[in-house]
Amino acid sequence: MAENSSSYLDRLKLIRTQIDEKCHNLIQNINEHKSKLHTVINDIESDFLQLENVRENEITKLSSMMTMYEDKSGNDNRLNDVQSRVSTTLQAEINDLQSANYEKNVEFVWNDQLGEQLCLIANIEVNKELVIEKEMGKETNDLVFEKEETNEEKVPGKDEDKTEEKGEVEKKESSRSYSSLNIPSVESYSIGSHNDQLGWPTGVAISEDNSFFVADYTNNRVSVFTQWGKLKSNFSQPGMMGLVNNMQGPWGVCCHGNSIYVTESKSEKQYAAVKMFDLEGKYCSGVVKFGSEKGELNDPTGLSFDVLNNELYVCDRLNNRVQVFTDTLIYKGIFTNKMIFQPRDIKVASETVFILDENDPCMHLFDKSTCRIKTHLISQGPKRDVVNAWFFTIDSDGNFLVSDRDSNSIAVFSQEGEQLCKIGCKETINFVKPTGIAVNAVGKIIVVSEKPSGCVQIL
Questions:
Q1: How far is CA 430 from CA 126, 225, 390, 412, in A?
Q2: Model pTM score
Q3: Cβ within 8 Å of residue 44, ≥6 positions away
Q4: 245 Cβ contact partners less than 8 Å away, ≥ 6 residues apart
Q5: Kind and range of the H or E element at 411?
Q6: DSSP-derived 3-state class of residue 257
Q7: Cα separations (Å) of 121 from 117, 146, 206, 223, 372?
Q8: Which tens digit of pLDDT belongs to each residue from 187-207?
Q9: Count of CB atoms within 10 A of residue 126's CB?
Q10: Considering the chain, what is the average pLDDT of its residues?
Q11: How far apart are CA 439 and CA 437, in angstroms?
């Protein structure tokens, strides 16, 4: 019995020893696996950090490639655009060269008259050619429409017996000149957002070389045309690596020297701005402030440059006022009068500010120094002079040309507000929803229309 008990205890000790060895080996294996697991985790974390670095480097390379591609694409598009238009415009340029002497003589006569008028209005004795060189690029032919204040215009008034007769002669001459307009040169562009398309063209302005700029509201850009109406380029305001367009709803446009001023408005987004670009479309400065305080804007529309005081006048439509900025867009003051109601377009002369708004009558002449009203012109509404006036310009004779969007025509008025004629609604000359209008240095009328497609007409 004692022997059996001793044998049983020995077996138990042996089993315990075996169990202890197995537990020790198991613990060693667990520690080894744990060490390997830590090594794997460290390797994974290291690989993850490397992947993050690779990802950031790839994003940087991709952004750089996108920028290079956009630049290359823009250059290729401009090159293709030029090449595609060379064959179609060559003959037109040859024709222009054949009549170069005639055009040169016409432009010389017009420039000569413009220089004399500028000198009379500004009451300064300056070199006529320098004045013309400074003022020729203005879309509005500013300072020309003050002719009635010069001695030259007052001479016929001395002979009161012949005033009525002479007025009739002048009216016939103006009507005849506009009624005998040739069939316009028309360039139609399909509606869209591609580089060779227009969305909703609104304001138009002319530079010193007679090329012109059109604000494209829906495409958030400005389109640049040759003096013959050929679309040659577009510009906007790129931001954030070129992936964002900071130009929003351009409406009015104005040229002065080497600068282009553009108003922008998106009332539903509470966005309003006036900005300055150079002739290449590079952004220079701007005022982006929505509101009703001084220097803030709410639906800015037309604008005009005052060359005598080096100031920019901007129609602040929904604030019922006009705001004045320096040429670098620093706020200077407010031009306001109780008669101004939702102004749409403006032209500034030496002593007079012309404002087109939504009143009836819709054209007001103000004294620039006092903001006091001089007179009212042009009735607006159904069965009146114009139905819905949008933009206007002034020709070298001081006549007003108003785009009447709802009557599909351009209404022409004398300096006294007498309607001389209406252009449009004919077989040879037809407008559909005309918006922007301007007159260039040789008397050509540029009209942009809204429908049926983006249309540019030169008369």
A1: 43, 21, 17, 15
A2: 0.62
A3: none
A4: 220, 221, 236, 237, 238, 239
A5: strand 409-413
A6: coil
A7: 6, 6, 22, 34, 19
A8: 778 888 888 888 899 999 999
A9: 12
A10: 77
A11: 7
